[in-house]
Prior knowledge:
By secondary structure, this protein is an alpha+beta fold.
Amino acid sequence: MDRRAVIALLALIGPVLTSCASRPQDPQEFLDEKSASTTLVAAKPLVFARDRSDVAAHARDYATLVAVEVDQSGDYGEYMILYRWSTVDRRMAAPPPSNAGELRLIADGRVIDLPPLERLPVGLQHRRLLHLPAHGDVVPRAYRVDADVLNSLAASRVVILRMPQESLDTPFTLWEDGRGELTRFLQRAAAP
């Protein structure tokens, strides 16, 4: 195949590949045989970050939010799982304290305060299936939410995350956008 034919072929399939890559993915569903619960997980999380150039170049704190729905014999519960992690060296900045789990989301100006649950709900123990970041110092937390909160996040143009109990008050901004996948999750979720 000559060079012009390759260029013409790439011109034809390039837009198709791009549109496929940017299309939101469907949520994943899995069965926890121990608890007999079914968990629906958004295909992509919302990942927030805040710059930490105060301690190191290119260092950031991250907050990964994953939407999940647990069906335990027809009893549905919707949750956001938070993974709080950082690329900052622990010697430069300690991880957040274990009791600092309050979450504040600001979606197009609407403030949503979420208190953390004491522990991860049954069926959410398999963190490898829940977009667990590949990082050593991940602090997981769970929050009970409803469809209204999830719809606000999915439909918002600007979403900011704060951790008010942490000593650093700098907000987290959206780093990796999973709002399309959150919308697909809501379309599939069974809870009202």
